[in-house]
């Protein structure tokens, strides 16, 4: 015996101004979730708590449902009478519906939600939320897309083995996750490049493996102009692999100068300064599990007023 209300799913990253919230705290929490691209539903279900003569006489409608965690969230204030009443309802709901996950959340505990979605490492990178222009890709979105790429690559290379070639350092996280998502025999090797304004791009650390006659998948974190990626392709083709394809996590297609043949693309993104999931600013923020746009004043304050999208951590 359950009573359903209108099911309203709000996509991550959208400011759901059309939703009429019952309390300003709910609107604030929705904006908080939107900023971090966490999918949510507002009051999607009512749970009957007491019946009399076959009729529902008391029910409980949690404020939010977070589908990616299968978690209901009920917001509360510090007012003791309200907390006591809500605690009673939450306890009753758990007794009647033991399979339902629900938390009673104070505003000060919003960080608990972030930790459930992989945002906890913001603290250890010294990156404050006010230094983030916006979250571009959440941990859940990245992992879903990496899994899709892994399935596609596994299908395309059915019956074959692969050599994954990553370009250090930004590729570390993407390459590790992608390799685990691929269900074909594979080896992994790395290149590292050096860039000099006078001499251009050169190989600083070469491959350890002989790729002659092998199927090679060149894996990059991000591609801009395509100039560096074109250099790597020409270098590897001279070693006579059986085939060579490119997989990139992020593609700034609007900045392309050289038409490099990228077969697998995780996300096409705008020309903005991004960090996280291996991408850095001055070696910081690589260990963020999400990808965000860094505010311009963060790097301008350090005397590095680079143009937005400058290729400091990527294949140019």
Automatic annotation (TrEMBL):
Pfam entry (one): Pribosyltran
E.C. numbers: 2.4.2.8
Keyword Nucleus: no
Family annotation (CDD domains): PRTases_typeI
Compartments, as annotated in UniProt: Cytoplasm
Domain of life where this protein originates: Bacteria
Annotated keywords: Cytoplasm, Glycosyltransferase, Magnesium, Metal-binding, Nucleotide-binding, Purine salvage, Transferase
Location (main, coarse): cytoplasm
Gene3D superfamilies the record matches: 3.40.50.2020, 3.40.91.30
All copies of domain Phosphoribosyltransferase, residue ranges: 142-282
GO CC term, one of those recorded: cytosol
Required co-factors: Mg(2+)
GO MF term list: guanine phosphoribosyltransferase activity; hypoxanthine phosphoribosyltransferase activity; magnesium ion binding; nucleotide binding
Functional pathway: Purine metabolism; IMP biosynthesis via salvage pathway; IMP from hypoxanthine: step 1/1
Catalyzed reactions: IMP + diphosphate = hypoxanthine + 5-phospho-alpha-D-ribose 1-diphosphate; GMP + diphosphate = guanine + 5-phospho-alpha-D-ribose 1-diphosphate
Gene Ontology BP, a term: hypoxanthine metabolic process
Similarity comment: family membership: Belongs to the purine/pyrimidine phosphoribosyltransferase family.
PANTHER family on file: HYPOXANTHINE PHOSPHORIBOSYLTRANSFERASE, HYPOXANTHINE-GUANINE PHOSPHORIBOSYLTRANSFERASE
Name the record gives this protein: hypoxanthine phosphoribosyltransferase
């Amino acid at each position: 015996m359950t009573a359903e209300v209108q099911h309203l799913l709000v996509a991550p990253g959208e400011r759901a101004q059309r939703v009429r919230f019952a309390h300003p705290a709910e609107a604030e929490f929705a904006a908080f979730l939107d900023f971090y691209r966490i999918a949510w539903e507002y009051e999607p279900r009512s749970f009957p708590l007491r019946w009399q003569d076959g009729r529902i006489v008391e029910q409980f409608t949690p404020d939010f449902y977070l589908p990616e965690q299968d978690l209901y969230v009920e917001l509360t204030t510090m007012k003791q009478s309200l907390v006591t009443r809500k605690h009673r309802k939450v306890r009753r709901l758990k007794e009647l519906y033991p399979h339902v996950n629900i938390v009673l959340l104070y505003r000060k505990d919003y960080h608990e939600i972030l930790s459930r979605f992989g945002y906890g490492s913001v603290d250890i990178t010294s990156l404050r939320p006010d230094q983030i222009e916006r979250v571009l890709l959440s941990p859940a979105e990245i992992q879903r897309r990496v899994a899709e790429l892994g399935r596609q690559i596994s299908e395309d290379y059915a019956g074959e083995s692969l050599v994954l070639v990553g370009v250090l350092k930004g590729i570390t996280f993407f390459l590790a996750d992608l390799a685990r998502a691929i269900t074909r025999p594979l080896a992994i090797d790395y290149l590292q490049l050096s860039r000099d304004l006078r001499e251009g791009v050169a190989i600083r650390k070469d491959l350890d493996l002989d790729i002659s006659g092998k199927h090679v998948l060149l894996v990059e974190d991000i591609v801009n102009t395509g100039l560096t990626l074109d250099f790597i392709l020409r270098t590897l083709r001279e070693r006579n692999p059986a085939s060579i394809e490119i997989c990139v996590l992020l593609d700034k297609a609007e900045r392309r100068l050289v038409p490099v043949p990228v077969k697998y693309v995780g996300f096409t993104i705008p020309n903005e300064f991004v960090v996280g999931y291996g991408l850095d600013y001055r070696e910081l923020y690589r260990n963020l599990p999400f990808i965000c746009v860094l505010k311009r004043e963060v790097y301008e304050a350090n005397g590095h007023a680079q143009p937005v999208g400058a290729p400091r951590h990527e294949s140019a």
